[in-house]
Amino acid sequence: MPSAIQTLTVDLGPRSYEILIGASILDQIGQRMKSCVRGQRVAVVSNTTVAPLHLHPVQTSLEEAGFFVTPIILPDGEIHKNWNTLQQIFDHLIANRFERADPLLALGGGVIGDMTGFAAACHLRGVPFVQIPTTLLAQVDASVGGKTGINHPLGKNLIGAFYQPSLVMIDIDTLTTLPLRERLAGFAEVIKYGILWDRELFMLLEERLGEILAGNAELLIQLLHRCCAIKAAIVTMDEREEGKRALLNLGHTFGHAIESLTGYDRWLHGEAVAAGMVTAAHLATRIGLCPPEEAARMHALIQRCGLPTQLPNFPVDHYLEAMTHDKKVSGGRIRFILPERIGHTIVRSDLSTQLLRATLEANMEPSAQPTTKGYS
Amino acid sequence: MPSAIQTLTVDLGPRSYEILIGASILDQIGQRMKSCVRGQRVAVVSNTTVAPLHLHPVQTSLEEAGFFVTPIILPDGEIHKNWNTLQQIFDHLIANRFERADPLLALGGGVIGDMTGFAAACHLRGVPFVQIPTTLLAQVDASVGGKTGINHPLGKNLIGAFYQPSLVMIDIDTLTTLPLRERLAGFAEVIKYGILWDRELFMLLEERLGEILAGNAELLIQLLHRCCAIKAAIVTMDEREEGKRALLNLGHTFGHAIESLTGYDRWLHGEAVAAGMVTAAHLATRIGLCPPEEAARMHALIQRCGLPTQLPNFPVDHYLEAMTHDKKVSGGRIRFILPERIGHTIVRSDLSTQLLRATLEANMEPSAQPTTKGYS
């Protein structure tokens, strides 16, 4: 039986939109979209993994609401988050004469969402964009904030746009079809909100992690609503990432370096963020910013989720090199988001290379070969 | 001796910027940029034709003002306005670690401006963008409005973004190095502003065309200021092209079809717009909207500038096909901007295919082979 739908409004003036959160609600997408987009044709962008699982109810609901639906099914994986794949979307839209009012609907995880959003931002200089994120990571992160983009061989998400969706629908049922490894990786971002902003959320995770991982629907909807609300509050304060929004990058400076060094295909984003957050906590402890017992609680919760806590083994210089390519670099200095305690983080860009080296070395896996993190 | 600089503010709230118009002012770019951008490094994007003529004073001025300058020199021509060329800009910026505050400066015509603007819109999800348009067309058209983008094999400017510059500098001295054919093509857009908005401007052109074409600096600066002010007024009313701004596309529905059918390399944009405006006037006369004597004056002024007034010879079906790929298509219907009289235009999207066929046939060159329009 479908549960009640929770609604959250992301308030960005003329670019405001709603996030709908619930269970078994995919069959409502058609009616919901009718009220917020004008176009009559919808391009549903998905991938070869997600489409067989969730395209049918979405397409049926859209068609019943009177939309003409064209699916665009892309290959699955971060490795395809590039211009060539994006080009497939443009070719399809242009060959099928999609017009300015016709929306793109992203049905999938963060990669599908980021690429579809960027395609929507650029096609005819901007067409409407609707998101149905199907991974926990995409639901708590990519569904709020309007960051879209693709990777460049030298770094992640270096090419993209800030572009807001017209509507986001989160159906927690999609999580049941997610491989365990991906579901756990998503919890890295949930924990992130606890560390950076919300001590209560962190404690809820500490206390009820078992039930949450077992899939308690009510708790999951509550968590998703809370994470999205935190991100919405921060994004509303700082739509174009000039201040507060930087805090959301907790764990990402190290995390992006891991993903870049491992070629984007061995570590999941959430896994990289998990090891990145533990490393950031180490760094914060090392400079006397964060009490060791607080850092230990962060480490413990991340470990309980089965997430990695150490960096894969690469030469320290490779890490430093990868981190200077990050978008968060300013004035040539790497910017770090560091926890002061659970629920409060700050930005620091005055850290010495020596200190970074020591932190990287201290929190690195001993093995010479980077391994695949395999849970599934 | 440098003349006084005319300044025009394009009022778009937080995205407002200034257009500086004058003669021999390139050596002021460094100081002017210091006051509106924070970054210390500037990527000057130009092409193999413009760079040898104008890069030196621009680079010197920037370096004297304390900027670190990297030129990115692209191949010249509309045929290169594609992803591959754009990729060269991204590769360069990323390899050289350009940061979010570091601006891109477009030094060239419309192609360079559109590509550089789009690169600035997408690099790290948006970096500052400064324009020095060096063709008449780019000065009166591309320098106001924030339209950026690249072509797709199936149509012009289909992929892009609305992205505003931080500063525009127009130096009419750059026009003296422009081939005659390109200078004349630019007048198509000047005439366009007269037809669509400003009867007085049209009459000034009719009366003093000789002096203007001979390069009278005072008259040129006056014309440029007037065209930019008209465009700024329209764009301010309608930044994202949802209403009034459509009027700026006078001549462009036919014009884009010409460019698409001739593969973007035989007709200059302004030439295509010129023939497109005459065809639009024919169409307006045919439905009783525009008095024949007004249409005749438009035709005559365009002809006096040495611009084409007839469409190149292609099957009518090819024109219809090309026009339905245009961004201006709405609800499957082609949208036309039609003059009611000199100084006033309207939008119509209710015209029959039969009427279009008749208009296309009546205003087409007799020759079976499309020719290159050659003035230079």
Overall description:
Helices cover about 45% and strands about 15% of the residues of chain A. With about 375 residues, chain A is an alpha/beta fold. Chain A folds into 2 domains: about 5-175, Rossmann fold (3-Layer(aba) Sandwich), CATH 3.40.50; about 180-360, Dehydroquinate synthase-like - alpha domain (Dehydroquinate synthase-like, alpha domain, Up-down Bundle). In chain A, a hairpin with a 2-residue loop joins strand 7 and strand 8. The longest helix of chain A is centred in the middle third of the chain and has 21 residues, at about 215-235. In chain A, the strands form 3 sheets. The first copy, chain A, has a 7-stranded mixed β-sheet with strand order 1-2-9-6-5-3-4, sandwiched between helices. The interface of A and B includes residues 83, 97, 126, 157 and 324 of A.
Brief summary of the model shown:
The structure is a homodimer of 376-residue chains. With 376 residues, chain A is α/β, with parallel strands linked by helices.
User: What do we call the CATH homologous superfamily of the largest domain in chain A?
Assistant: Dehydroquinate synthase-like - alpha domain
Poorly predicted parts of chain A: none
The global form of chain A is globular
Q: Helix count of chain A, per DSSP?
A: 13
Report the strand count of chain A: 11
CATH topology of the largest domain in chain A: Dehydroquinate synthase-like, alpha domain
Oligomer type: homodimer
**CATH class annotation of the largest domain in chain A:** Mainly Alpha
CATH architecture tag of the largest domain in chain A: Up-down Bundle
State the end-to-end distance of chain A: 29 Å
Approximately how much helix is present in the residues of chain A?
40-55%
Quickly give the structural class of chain A: alpha/beta
